[in-house]
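Training component of the fellowship. As part of building independent skills, the fellow (R.M.) carried out the full modelling exercise for a liganded target. The chosen ligand was pyridoxal-5'-phosphate. The inputs are recorded below so that the supervisory panel can assess the work.
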Amino acid sequence: MKQVIARRDWLKQTSLALAASTGFIPSLFNGESRTPPPAGPIRLHANENPYGPSPQARAAMAAAITASNRYPWDQTTVLREKIAARYGLTQDAVLMGAGSSELLGLIASFAALKPGNMVCATPTFNLWWTAAQQQGLQVAEVPLTAEKVHDLPAMVQQVNTNTRLVYVCNPNNPTGTIVDHAALTRFVTAASQQALVLVDEAYLEYTDEPSLAPLLLNNKRLIIVKTFSKIYGLAGARIGYALAHPELTQQLGRLQPWINAGPSAVSVAGAIASLEDSGFVSSSRQQNASARAFTEAALKKAGLPFIPSNVNFLYYSLQSDQGNFLQKLADHQIRVGKFVEEKARWARLTIGTQAEMVSFTQVLQQHFTT
Ligand SMILES: Cc1ncc(COP(=O)(O)O)c(C=O)c1O
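Fellow's submitted model of the complex:
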């Protein structure tokens, strides 16, 4: 008995010593408190959720480490069922990926099976275009309106028999604008007569807008991609999904090595817990809205034009900047987006925590008022 206790003590001491030396604190496992983020630059450049992962997700992910010697097939199917239930769909309407980026690449490969073009707005989220272009798709770019919103009438005019894919990012990255739901519904119905339509709802949970998912029941040429990287705070876990009519997911799934191959056991556990942690989602939304209002007021005071945002980032113009504001931010260890539109010097800014936005606005005030 004595020996057992001594061994237990030894184990406890050893694991605490290990935790201290690696910074891996046991409280990670109960999900109640979090390890302080490592000191480093303020990250206002990748539209991540600064509050995530949710406490419940962290606890579930820590627990899932133990089961990581097994393939997570069953749990991934449970996750697909939970996602499907949210949208009144069945689990065969859901495809999982290691982030929605992986699925954007997969959809590009699918569309490129027949040569042609893809119709997209500009600027929009275009990181995945190179993959599409490498596979032979040409990008037909349609400028946003003056208000930085998708020009749906102009886009639909570009869709023809040569079009393989039409992409709408709603809300749009980098401008943070949304398109009217009824207009988008009409657009999807019209464009999908000719081509596959892909709607990217990565940031929809920051808004009150409904998903287009109900259209999937009757539309076999619509795909919606969504992610756990944004409001759910799991960007580093790499997990996202696509929703489509089961006949279409079956065809898309043939380009995956096997269904459920992408996300890890840890990511799946985090995603399931995140879906159930509605308190975390609403508090992220509230804190983001308040830090965003604070930032918008500071931009206004500094005389910088910006597009009123619906999401966790802002689109603002530095055309009036006589100095080099972006460099000044970099000097203060604040990372922000580069110029998206060179001519009018529009750039993107992610909304961080209130404390992070105070740091940003201090540099802003100093730069533009002195
Ligand atoms: C509009 C949009 N779609 C998709 C993604 C890809 O996200 P992930 O691959 O992390 O799911 C991003 C990332 O910033 C994005 O802004």
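The panel noted the following from the submitted structure. Residues 47, 99-101, 125, 169, 173, 200, 202, 227, 229, 235, 240 surround pyridoxal-5'-phosphate (CB under 6 Å). DSSP finds twelve helices and 13 strands in the chain.
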